[in-house]
Amino acid sequence: MPAFKFRGVDFIELDSLMSDDERLVRDTARRFVEENLVPIIEQCNREGRFPRELVSPMADLGFFGANLQGYGCAGMSNVEYGLVMQELERGDSGIRSFCSVQSSLVMFPIYALGSEEQKEKWLPTMAKGEKIGCFGLTEPDFGSNPSGMRTRAKKVGNEYVLNGEKMWITSGSIADVAVVWAKSEADNDRIRGFLVETNRPGFKASDVHGKWSLRASVTSGLSLQDVHIPAENVLPKSDGLKSPLMCLNQARFGIGFGAIGAAMSCYDTALQYSKLRKQFRDQPIASHQLVQEKLAWMITEITKAQLLALQVGRLKDAGKVQHQHISMAKRNNVWMALECARMARDILGGNGIADDYPVIRHMMNLESVKTYEGTHDIHALIIGENVTGISAF
Amino acid sequence: MKILVCMKQVPQKDAPLKLNEGGTWIREDVSYEVNEPDAYALEEALRQKEKHGGEVVVITAGPARAQQVLREGLAKGADRAIHLDDNAFVGMDAMNISKAFVAAIKDDKFDLIFTGLQSDDYGYAQTGVIMAELLGWPHATIIMEIQKSDGGIKVKRELESGFFQHVGMPLPAVLTIQSGINKLRYATLLGIKQAKNKPLRKVTLDEVKSSLSDNMQKVEKLYIPQKSKKTEMLEGSPAEVAKKLVEKLRNEVRVI
Ligand SMILES: Cc1cc2nc3c(=O)[nH]c(=O)nc-3n(C[C@H](O)[C@H](O)[C@H](O)COP(=O)(O)OP(=O)(O)OC[C@H]3O[C@@H](n4cnc5c(N)ncnc54)[C@H](O)[C@@H]3O)c2cc1C
Question: Is the pLDDT of residue A1 over 70?
Answer without folding.
Answer: no
